[in-house]
Design a protein that fits this description.
One of its GO terms (biological process) is chorismate biosynthetic process. Keywords: Amino-acid biosynthesis, Aromatic amino acid biosynthesis, Oxidoreductase. By secondary structure, the chain is α/β, with parallel strands linked by helices. It contains eleven helices and twelve strands. Strand 10, helix 8 and strand 11 form a beta-alpha-beta unit.
């Protein structure tokens, strides 16, 4: 059986390391997992050309929205956030679309006993932010303040309206004030976009838990600021492991501990 991850760029993806570790743990010696470079425009033809040995696909940027159009069925979570990161082959050779990112965020937060958050500060408003917001809605989120460099993306605002969560947009320069009232801070700014506010947030007397979606160059300046204040810090690598574990279960029908994937990803990352 075959599975793999598609996206662009894809060379940096930790999915092959994680999924292969899961297969080894489960004794699935006849399963393979590879990576393929793919832009959104090329996705329909690539998927159509996969033979019946392909059982599942992990999808990263920029394919999550395009994947919805290829699916026979779309799970409610993927439909709600407007993107799927998983395609699973159906018996009729069609595809079912899922979003396991929301599960990944929820479980990563739960691992650090973050089980409630009424007021949330989010840095960024893209696809990662939408998955995180869908997860924190289950934690009782009622208000969201965005710290952004431009405007909140329309699809993100629409999701919050659908979830009945009040939201507001603010310049990044206001995050120090916003963090004082937050029960949780979520950073989804690409690259090192949050570095500029890390020093300012060190001035806040009590910092809430931080979900840092970025795991490159860990710990980030923002993660160090929150850790120094004694606040729980949740890495995007933990979210990645949990969402990957659910992908493995959806594709193979076998459950695997997320710790297996996290150990593999952490080991691979430290060697880069």
């Amino acid at each position: 059986m075959r599975a793999g991850v598609l996206g662009s760029p894809i060379a940096h993806s930790l999915s092959p390391v994680m999924h292969r570790a899961a297969y080894a743990h489960l004794g699935l010696d006849d399963w393979t997992y590879d990576r393929r470079e793919c832009e959104a425009a090329a996705l329909p033809a690539l998927v159509a050309g996969l033979d019946q040995t392909w059982r599942g696909l992990s999808l990263t940027m920029p394919l999550k929205e395009a994947a919805l159009a290829l699916a026979t069925t779309v799970d409610p979570v993927a439909e709600s956030v407007g993107g799927a990161n998983t395609l699973v082959r159906r018996p009729d050779l069609g595809w079912d679309a899922y979003n396991t990112d929301v599960h990944g965020v929820r479980q990563a937060l739960a691992d650090h006993d973050v089980t409630a958050a009424r007021h949330v500060l989010v840095l960024g408003s893209g696809a990662t932010a939408r998955s995180a917001l869908a997860a924190v809605r289950e934690l009782g989120a009622r208000t969201v303040a965005f710290g952004i460099r431009s405007a909140v993306r329309p699809e993100t605002g629409a999701l919050l309206d659908e979830l009945d969560i009040s939201w507001s947009a603010h310049p990044l320069g206001e995050v120090t004030t916003l963090a004082r009232d937050a029960d949780l801070v979520i950073d989804t700014l690409p690259g090192r976009g949050a570095d500029a506010v890390a020093a300012r947030l060190a001035e806040v007397p009590r910092l809430p838990p931080l979900f840092e979606a970025i795991y490159e160059d860990w710990p980030t300046p923002l993660a160090r600021t929150f850790a120094a204040a004694g606040a729980p810090v949740i890495s995007g690598l933990e979210m990645l492991a949990h969402q990957g574990a659910l992908q493995v279960e959806l594709m193979t029908g076998r459950a695997v501990p997320a710790s297996v994937l996290l150990d593999a990803a952490s080991g691979a990352w430290t060697q880069r």
